[in-house]
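Bit of a strange request maybe. I'm writing a small parser for structure token strings and I need a real example to test against, not something I typed by hand. Could someone generate the tokens for this chain?
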Amino acid sequence: MTDQIVAKFGLGQIVRHREAAFRGVVIDVDPVFSGNRADTGSVSPDQPFYQVLALGAEGGFVAYAPEDALEHDPELSAVTREAESRWFNVDSRGRYAPKAHAIH
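Reply from user aminoacidic:
Good idea to test on real output. This should exercise your parser:
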């Protein structure tokens, strides 16, 4: 029997990185690290990894972060309407996807 990995965060959820001091929206989830396992260093590759679109005054960037480095962001409960229309497509269920990507 194999262990099933369940992601803590879902698409469209707002999170913050505990150490890198950025906030963003989850735009994709991998059940485990999708690159070369040697590249994770001391971080366990056997956990969900997230693509997070971090929004800032100068624009946005995509970060690839392990689950244990992220937490729910209680200070930012929703994406502003301006950021939503600039960066995302939002479906009828409220799920976010970057303008350049389809919603899963």
